[in-house]
Amino acid sequence: MIPKQTVNMTDVARRSGVSIASVSRALRGGPGVSPATRERILSAARELSYVVSPEASRLSGGPTGRLGVIVPRIDAWFYSTILAGIADELDTLGVDLVLCTLPDAAARHRFFEALPLRRKVDAAVVVSLPLSAREHTRLERLGVPTVFVGGHRTGDHRPWVGIDDERAARQAVGHLLTIGHTDIAMIQAADDADIPWATDQARIRGFHRQLADAGVTDPTVVTVKWSIDGGSRGMEMLLSQDRLPTAVFCHSDEIALGALRTLRRAGISVPQHISVIGVDDHPAADISDLTTVAQPVRAQGRLAARAVLDSLGTDERPETAPPVTTLATRLVVRGSTAPPR
Fold this sequence. Notes:
alpha/beta, 434 Repressor (Amino-terminal Domain), Rossmann fold, six-stranded parallel β-sheet
């Protein structure tokens, strides 16, 4: 891990009156810095007791000085927050981010056929993107350290950072059971590609296993797209049935927010007539008074960036499995859940 220090490269740049990039070049002995400027930077670093971490130096001093980040999309809170976490770790190191978005099958095909990041980055982070066996093989041809974020599959020992999605679902359903609900429906997210999304599958397992442990069988389940509009449609589907459940577990807060919108428009009070719970702790969850299971999204981005830095410059293959880092989730009780009436 990168040693924690109170002084960073920004402080050295401010003290010496130069850019962060100049500080990075000077401290690693790179070109493009005059002797006088280099000495001023080194003097500022000594005064501030600043030491460059060896891992950061490897990345900023690598052949490209760039980190590739591969995501399905950036117009969603989860992905943009992961990116912010990665930037938290790298923004003072003189390292550039190269972003690749793969929003559809055509983009995926082009990326994995052409591998546009090859010889253009020193390391890569793949964010919550399910890959086929062939895509994994193609990705390995980048020939750089790679860390994955989100959507972990049991038995996959590639370097990974994320949460236990099954446990998060169990926490959500467990809360509903604890306050007295047994008629609990689920609005689950549909996989939008031929490859199943591990996050979806894990949350489905958690829902059914938690209910089964409580002796609850045959729950109502509807499947929608992972979006606010999808959640709204899912609640419409539940309202169209003969009997309304007393509580609904939604695969994500975005789905839950859509469900709440439909209930509000239908004049159905939450939680007086129905309880709703999500997963993630989206920024809008607090505004909407949504009970949820929070996950530390930004921290996942930071830890993934650190894991990439840790792996740089290591030629030896570890005898044990690469690290799998699982962060804790926590129940956040707000006003959208209450005992059934």
